[in-house]
Amino acid sequence: MLDYPALEALAEIIRRGSFEAAAHALSITPSAISQRIRNLEDRSGTVLIDRGPPVQGTKAGLRLAAHLDQVRLLERGLIQTIPDALPVIRLAINADSLATWAMPPLTAAPGLLDVVIDDQDHALDWLRNAHVTAALTSDSRPVSGCDSIPLGRMRYRATASPEFIARYFPNGPDSRSLGRAPALSFNSKDGLQDRWARRIAGRRIALPLHRIASSQAFAEATRLGLGWGMNPEVMIAADLDSGQLIDLAPDQPLDIPLYWQIARISAPALMPLTRAIKKAARTALLP
Amino acid sequence: MLDYPALEALAEIIRRGSFEAAAHALSITPSAISQRIRNLEDRSGTVLIDRGPPVQGTKAGLRLAAHLDQVRLLERGLIQTIPDALPVIRLAINADSLATWAMPPLTAAPGLLDVVIDDQDHALDWLRNAHVTAALTSDSRPVSGCDSIPLGRMRYRATASPEFIARYFPNGPDSRSLGRAPALSFNSKDGLQDRWARRIAGRRIALPLHRIASSQAFAEATRLGLGWGMNPEVMIAADLDSGQLIDLAPDQPLDIPLYWQIARISAPALMPLTRAIKKAARTALLP
Q1: ipTM of this model?
Q2: Where is the HTH lysR-type domain positioned along the sequence (chains A, B) (predicted)?
């Protein structure tokens, strides 16, 4: 059996980013908390906390902390817990969903939320490594031990400011103009711009890329004329209406299906959250 | 002398997240790009790319890629470069600044932007490790080889929804109510809520914490009544006016000074960006 008080210490350190803050939260001394971690590391034969700075969990440490969350979530089915032992629900949510429709249903989570942001193509890595309990993602591939629930499609539109279009796309987007016009991209895992450009040009284009890892700043950068980019239609509908943004090819939207992938062991405890997500998706997404 | 074509291959792989995409962007074969990386790794005696998935740079690989960016930036002072050799300007910007005032001045950057998000207390780690060229941060400590320019103060207000206040703070915030009311926090490095609670309670409080690593989702979660949190005043001014959010203690704002820290070697090339940042800060921040 694992040493659960030590796991609690480990999880608090990772969550609060310091040994001292964790000791305070657990009402034990800093030396007691160091001792627990050392014992846990000795017994598991591996380093669980990177002492930094910054202090953070190693892969093994994060896996153990995620295990503790799952145990707490299971316990919730058994007993009425006290408020300060609320389980932590760790979720990976793609940034564009969080920026548009996903925040309200997340409030149905039965515990304290820990929302990590990931673009829609790679949230499964988080699930596979058991760092999160559920993920809102565009990846439909089954993850072992997880259920996958299709939610609908999010529509993206290739957009730019009128000035940007006059400068880079006077004759519309094609392989030559796409190779010269700066594109916006969320991060190195964001393949939407590449996919769309390939579809338009009929071949792969090496896009000059800006990278801005925030959905709202990405849309703002599009309006400011920094580059063209794939924006969620629901996010920039008003800009298209007002003419502040122009759709580069109104007949060529990109529809990205989204899935709610959830660790099967936690599915019963997270049922209220799953219901809220499905309901919100029905109004926010295309069928 | 370093092998710069190999460094270019390394930087493209890190930026695009795959060997294949990098080979395409550089118009060389995948086997040629693999060969370049292997040579570079043999000569430096260390692994530069974590083959994943996901494919990403190791610490040493990121440092080499950042070096290449600096060399390109220096070259820009010498010669007129061709459009597809635009230098990449890698910046760490704290999320709340990007969400409120910092995106427009960033468009003055002389090259392709690569904006990484960090909360305001730890962007210096990025600078120190030479993964970024400049950082917008609350940390005034000098970083060796960097200039630090004070920009002004961003005002934060402890806010919550009226329903949340009725439930958790009927008699206002104190050490007892703060220990029970869920707080919002950006990530494990976000100490604003802890600092404010400590000031109000006169001692440290172990806050029950939700974590949501997006400024806009953080504000939305406050409005939805998920928790209380420190929101930038400029971001939630309209909510305070309309009564959708209430200031927990109007006479207790938290003012966070912000600094523009910039690698001295890149300062001349980035002068237009620095000027734009300083100008925007004068209207957006308190003196």
Answers
A1: 0.75
A2: 2-58
